[in-house]
Amino acid sequence: MKFIPAFGLGTFRLKDRVAIDSVRTGLELGYRHIDTAQIYGNEAEVGQAIAASGVARDELIVTTKIWTENLGSGRVIASLRESLRRLGLERVDLALIHWPSPGDELPVTQYLGELLQAKRLGLTAAIGVSNFTIAHLRQAIDAVGADEIATHQVEIHPLLQNRRLVDFTRQQGIHLTAYMPLAYGKVLAEPAIQRIAAAHGASPAQVALAWSLQQGHAVIPSSTRRENLAANLAAAELRLSAEDMAAIAGLERGERVANPGFAPRWD
Question: Where are the domains of the chain?
Answer without folding.
Answer: 9-249
